[in-house]
Structure formats: C-alpha cells, structure tokens
Design a protein that fits this description.
With about 475 residues, this protein is α+β, with helices and mostly antiparallel strands. Among the domains are: about 160 residues, no CATH class; about 110 residues, Immunoglobulins (Immunoglobulin-like). The protein is built from 16 helices and 16 strands. The strands form five sheets. Strands 8, 9, 10, 12 and 14 form a five-stranded antiparallel sheet that branches. Strand 9 and strand 10 form a beta hairpin. The mean pLDDT is about 90.
Length: about 475
C-alpha cells in the first residue's frame, strides 16, 4: 500500500453509529393535564411509600413474606398454592393495559408508569435546586465554580437520599417495615436486605436521574408494539395540521388568515415541555408518552393569542378527518368481555376460597405392609395448612373403603393461624375389602369451630389383591 493511500485512509472520518445523547430540559407546564399528572404522581408515590406502614389487625396490612412463602393482603393470606390467582391478576393487568391503550393511547406511560412517576419526582427536586429550564441550561453551560458545585452536589445528594429511601421502602414490602427500620437504625441489616436497598436505590437513581427519556425510547418494549393496539378511533396526542399550517410568528390579535398563516405561532413551547424532546407537529411518534404537556402549553398560548384551543389535543384520526368516531369496535368489545369474565371469575374464586389446605404424602419407603392382625397398612404424612388469620382445630375423616381403621387425635388437629402442621397417620384395611391394587381414598378435613371451612382431598391406598 502506497504512502498516499495510507494518508487517505487515516484522514477518512469515522461515522458514529449511535448519536450522542443530548440532555433534555423539560419546561415546567401548568394546566388541566398537568394537574392530573401531578395528582397521579402524588397518589401513586403516597401508596408506595406509605403502604408498608399501614397496619391491619396488629400486623402489616400488605406484606409479601418470601422466606415464609406467605403473602398477606389485608384479611387474606395467600400461599404458593394460590399462584393461580397471581397468574389471573397478571392476565387482568395485561388486558386492562391493552384496553386502555386501544381507547386512549399511552396514558399509562404519561401518568402511571413507574419510570414517569419517579422521573417527575426527580425533575421536581431538580427544579427546586437548580431553578427553571433556562437556569438549568445556563448552569450546565457555565464553567465550574463553587456555586455550581454546591448546586450540583445538593441535587445529587437529594436524588441519592430519595433513591435510597425508595430502595428501603421497596424492601419494606417484603420484610416487615418496623423490623427493617429497627435493624437499619442498629446497623443489623441482613446481606440480602442491604443488597436490595442499594440495588433498587441505584436503579432508581440511574433511571429517573440520568437515563430518563432513554428508558422510554430505547429500553421499554411497550413503545415498540403499542401501535399494534391503535386504530383510527384511539385517542392520541395530535396536532391539527390543517388548522395550524402554515405556521409562523405574528403579533397578538393579528388576523393570521389574512396573512396566509395558520393558527400555530411557531413558539416551539410544545417541544420545550416534552419530556422526550419530540416535536408533536411532525406527527405521532413512538417516543410520545401521551403526557399531554404539549396540549396544556399550546392551549395556554392559544388563550393569550385569543385563538380557539385544542390546536394540539387528545383526539382521534377519525375526528381529525371529520369521520364518525366509534367507541365499541371489535377489539374494544373483546377486551371488555375478556376483562369482565376473568375479573368476575377471579373475585368469585377468591370469595369462595377456603382458607385451608391439605397435602397428602404417601410413605414411599414401602408400598404397604401387613400387620400382625392380618390387616394391610399404608402410612401417610399430612400437611395441614391453616390459611386463615386465626387458629383452628380440625377433625379428620377418611372414606372410600369399608371398615378402614385410622389412628387420629381425639381432640382434632390444632393448627395456628398462617402455619403448617405435619401429622403422620396410619390407615389399616381388611384385605377382603380391597378389590384392586390401588383404591381411591377421600380425606375429609373440617374446622371444628366453623363448618364452612372444610375440604376434601383424594388419595390412594395400595395393597395386594387376593383372588
């Protein structure tokens, strides 16, 4: 290779595959939708941070006790055997999200998504420390000084403190918050509790403080497939191009139609308030999270100019084109029917749920044995689960074979609230009553103090068959 060619290769510019992130400084906005968003953030953060401190009958009202494999939700205790309820709940949540998206676009992203909620909280802290959008931009462009260091240090200190509090409360949903507080103050945290406080805290700090819109634009899969649930009757943030174009500046009160202009004054405020930095006037984009900040600020400008509101608004494609809108379309109807059926089934199942569980484990060391009296004996281990919030004593009965013998406690089996008792039993049967090598048994268990708490569980009795 010649020296000339080498110089040409060295001088060839390297094209970057990924564009460097440009920091977005969302302008603070007021208005109807901003009030909705503020209220939603306040309510959701209140539920998150205050929820673990809510007490119910002397214990934490909502506690997901993973080591004990018990999940307390007010009056209910759920066990791993109740996993079907969690599966149904996740299905309901997914269908509800699909329904809301089909009706109102990405309102979940704009108002209730954890990324949005915590980002709003971090933005509020940032504005309180560094000031308005213009002040933040001016501060970042300025050289380092004691004043800049003080403001940046204060902001990040508050962010980190808030993030660690978030991690602490997160662990408090799984470890009783009062015990967690005591162990934290006495520096006696367990390794896993310490790990999750730090991990979740720094995840919050990174996502809400640094990554922000990048999580929505590049990491969240929902932004990629949301359009599959949209149709021409879905409410989305839209710019009325027919009314707004051609855009241009003008004096207040000027007859823009006489000047050959549209209603848009090209103030770019809709871009400045957008948390993802897009221009809604370029059309619907996957980066739009449906927060409606642009709607509020545009309506404010239209008010000042004396123009009709809703140049940017929540509307549908059919409404913009003057076509008839329809609420009950096939996909919405299917979502509503599925959501109603599964929700009713789940609530009905929980309402009829018996707070009692019984697992029957046969002794596998031997299929059966013959007693000195000539009877065939099987040995079982019963695991009785009291899923209620109070102690119960249960009576046990077994049926399915004539004249079977069972040794059981006369006073019943006492099981404390939220615990499991292991109880061994022996069942003896006259071999003349065995018709097959495997005979079905039915175990009956019911609470002595509440006839409504009773269950039946099938089992098998193994033995020889004499012909």
């Amino acid at each position: 290779m010649t020296e000339k060619n080498t110089q040409q290769i060295e001088m060839t510019p390297v094209e970057e595959v990924y564009a460097k992130r440009k920091k977005i400084y969302p302008r603070q906005v007021t208005g109807l939708f901003a009030s909705f968003r503020f209220t939603g953030v306040l309510v959701l953060l209140g539920i998150y941070y205050l929820g673990p401190f809510l007490q119910w009958n002397g214990r934490q009202a909502i506690l997901f006790d993973l080591p004990a494999r018990k999940f307390y939700i007010f009056e209910w205790i759920f066990w791993p055997q109740d996993f079907i309820y969690l599966a149904a709940l996740l299905i309901i949540a997914a269908i509800a999200l699909f329904l809301v998206t089909a009706l109102a676009g990405r309102v979940w992203c704009g108002y209730a998504c954890p990324q949005t909620v915590w980002t709003e909280a971090f933005l509020w802290i940032e504005r309180k420390v560094e000031g308005s959008r213009s002040s933040q931009m001016k501060l970042d462009k300025a050289g380092w000084s004691w004043a800049k260091f003080r403001l940046k240090f204060t902001k990040h200190f508050l962010w980190l403190a808030f993030s660690l509090l978030t991690g602490f409360v997160f662990v408090g949903w799984f470890t009783p918050i009062t015990e967690l507080t005591e162990r934290t103050l006495s520096f006696e945290l367990g390794p896993w509790e310490f790990f999750w406080i730090i991990f979740y805290g720094f995840a919050t700090y990174g996502n809400a403080g640094w990554m922000r819109e990048q999580v929505c634009m590049y990491m969240c899969p929902y932004a990629r497939f949301q359009s599959a649930m949209f149709d021409k009757n879905t409410l989305v943030i839209s710019y009325d191009e027919k009314r707004g174009e051609p855009r241009g500046s003008r004096k207040k009160g000027a007859d823009y139609e006489a000047e050959g202009k549209g209603a848009c004054v090209d103030c770019s405020l809709c871009v400045q308030v957008c948390p993802t930095g897009i221009d809604i006037r370029d059309g619907l984009q996957y980066q739009c999270i449906g927060c409606a900040a642009c709607v509020d600020v545009c309506n404010e400008v239209m008010d000042k100019m004396g123009y009709e509101k809703n140049l940017v608004s929540y509307t549908t494609e059919n409404a913009l084109s003057g076509k008839k809108e329809s609420f009950f379309r096939p996909r919405v109807t299917i979502y509503i029917v599925l959501l109603s059926v599964i929700t009713i089934a789940l609530l009905g199942s929980i309402a009829q749920r018996v707070p009692l569980g019984l697992d029957i484990i046969r002794d596998r060391s031997s299929l059966y044995r013959e007693t000195d009296e000539g009877l065939i004996e099987n040995v079982y281990t019963l695991k009785v689960m009291n899923m209620d919030l109070k102690d119960h004593r249960y009576s046990l009965a077994v049926g399915g074979i004539e004249d079977l013998r069972i040794k059981k406690p006369k006073k019943g089996i006492l099981v404390e609230a939220g615990t499991v008792v292991t109880y061994p039993i022996r069942i003896q049967v006259n071999p003349d009553n065995l018709k097959t090598a495997s005979t079905e048994l039915i175990f009956y268990l019911n609470a002595l103090d509440d006839d409504a708490i009773s269950i039946e569980v099938d089992g098998r009795f193994l033995g020889p068959v004499f012909k």
